[in-house]
Amino acid sequence: MTSRAVQYARFGGPEVLEIVDREDPEPGPGQVRLAVRAASVNPVDWKLRSGAFAGTDAPERPVVAGQDVAGVVEALGDGVDAFTVGDEVLGHARGGAYAEKALADVSRLVRKPSSVSWETAASLPVVVTTAYRALNLLRLGGDAPGTVLVVNGASGGVGIVVTQVAVARGITVVGTASASHQDDVRALGAIPVVYGDGLVERVRAVADHVDAVFDTAGKGDLGELVALTGGPDRVLTIAHPDAQTHGVTFSSGGGNAEVEGALAEFVGRLDAGTARAPEVVVYPLEKAGQAQEDNRTGTVSGKLVLVP
Ligand SMILES: NC(=O)c1ccc[n+]([C@@H]2O[C@H](COP(=O)([O-])OP(=O)(O)OC[C@H]3O[C@@H](n4cnc5c(N)ncnc54)[C@H](OP(=O)(O)O)[C@@H]3O)[C@@H](O)[C@H]2O)c1
User: Fold this and answer.
1) From ligand 1's centre to the CA of 229, what distance in Å?
2) What is 127-250's CATH topology?
3) d(CA 127, CA 131)
4) 168: how many CB neighbours lie within 10 A of its CB?
5) Rounded mean pLDDT of the chain?
6) pLDDT of residue 257
7) Which residues form ligand 1's pocket by a CB distance below 6 Å?
8) 167 CA to middle of ligand 1, Å?
9) What is the 234 CA–ligand 1 centroid distance (Å)?
10) Which ranges carry the Enoyl reductase (ER) domain (predicted)?
11) Taking the domains of the chain in order of start, what are their residue ranges?
């Protein structure tokens, strides 16, 4: 059987993405094949597509874009007993998610509750696992009442999740966002401040001290964020190009760095109604390039989700 996938055979702008018909991928040991219901766009998808991490003009073989996936299990690889055909799941795809069919390691999947839509489910894996990992690295892995955390970019995908999890742990969160997202950040339980010039003064006006800083945005003056805690020790970034200059830890993604159970815990919170997911904006699979561009330029807020 064949099915559609969005792939690129050379690095570049959104124009390098093409829809192809390919043979359905066969799950290896410990993997399942999903009939994809939704896949979400993460900034890393268009960064990888651009070749920013590569140093060559083209990948070794065509790459199907995307990591975040939600779908129905339709084929099992050897040794899979955690899921069966027909199960509804979400998680991290292996070998691409912008497709009608995708593979995933069962260790990177959790069950999708019926209360969570396909689009919302697909919006979660990367941002949720990143948020929990960051809190662990900042030594905020458990309840920490009285601690003050500044989240730079609290209105973004990672920011919305990390803010809610931190607030639930008793942490006071000061969250930066644009002027138009101040109410959204307040609704998450954080104290909102506008990012940009004068940030240090605005934070100090609402918090008498800052214990830790999580820069989700990779934008703004990292030196100012370091000044808030008095040193780089408890400042973490997942995206800032100036991390090394300021002695700040840069945490990149990666299987070994994930926090066991994070995705299942946050999905459980959504199912129980004690957390809310990022807003989603839905595009057809054919508009993958447009969705990546809208995410890159920030012209559309929320998690951008592709449906085949
Ligand atoms: N290393 C990793 O493991 C990892 C994992 C996931 C993501 N990331 C990276 O983390 C970054 C954020 O990802 P995301 O999915 O959360 O993106 P996103 O949803 O686009 O959110 C971006 C956030 O940055 C804020 N922002 C924009 N300009 C800013 C500025 N000048 N100063 C401070 N904040 C600003 C936005 O606020 P407004 O919308 O209010 O303007 C928003 O809160 C991306 O670069 C992504 O590649 C890294």
Assistant:
1) 21
2) Rossmann fold (3.40.50)
3) 6
4) 13
5) 96
6) 54
7) 42-44, 126-127, 130, 152-153, 155-159, 176-178, 181, 195, 216-220, 238-239, 251-253, 301
8) 19
9) 19
10) 12-306
11) 2-124+277-307, 127-250
Q: What is the pLDDT of residues 107-133, one digit of tens each?
A: 999 999 999 999 999 999 999 999 999
Q: Which of 195, 252, 300 to mutate to test the pocket of ligand 1 (most atoms within 8 A of CB)?
A: 195
Enter the tokens of residue 76. 């099992």
What is the whole-number distance in angstroms between the Cα of residue 35 and the centre of ligand 1? 29
Classify 218 in phi/psi space as left (phi over 0), alpha (psi -120 to 50) or beta. Answer: left
**Å from CA of 235 to ligand 1 middle:** 16
The torsion angles phi and psi of 270, rounded to 5 degrees, stand at -65, -45
**Distance set, CA 21 to CA 4, 7, 79, 84 (Å):** 5, 10, 29, 26
The full DSSP string for 174-223 is EEEE-GGGHHHHHHTTSEEEE-STTHHHHHHHH-S---EEEE-S--S-HH
Q: Is the model's pLDDT at 182 over the cut of 90?
A: yes
